[in-house]
Amino acid sequence: MERIAFKMTLLEGHVDEYKRRHQEIWPEIPALLKQAGISAYSIYLDEQTNTLFATLKLTDSAQLDWLSQQQQMREWWKYMSDITLSDAEGVPVLTTLNELFHLA
């Protein structure tokens, strides 16, 4: 099981909307994440910088490519693109974080 961490940028003034959308997440999205072998997925916010930090566990990193090709996932990203830093296709801009320490 791999552990992955990354960061994204939440656009200014959208904390409440980001929370609301995730509280009302489309049921297909958690199902797709689980189908891709993702578990223990958490997202944190640094309110001083509007940086979102995410951590997750993954059974096979190759499944991330599969996930990115799923229509419902791409629609979710597009839906979130007005409140997160995203590319021209609506895909969130991610920066992978390198693990420096882990206490098992």
Attribute tags:
single chain; EC 5.1.3.32; 4 helices; isomerase; alpha+beta; cytoplasm; 32% helix; 104 residues
Structure summary:
The chain is an alpha+beta fold and 104 residues long.
Detailed description of the structure:
The structure is a single chain. The protein is α+β, with helices and mostly antiparallel strands and 104 residues long. The chain has a domain of 60 residues: Alpha-Beta Plaits. It has a four-stranded antiparallel beta sheet with strand order 2-3-1-4.
Terminal CA distance reads 13 Å
Structural class: alpha+beta
**Count of DSSP H/I helices:** 4
In the CATH scheme, what's the topology name of the domain at 25-84? Alpha-Beta Plaits
Mean pLDDT: 97
Largest sheet: 4 strands, antiparallel
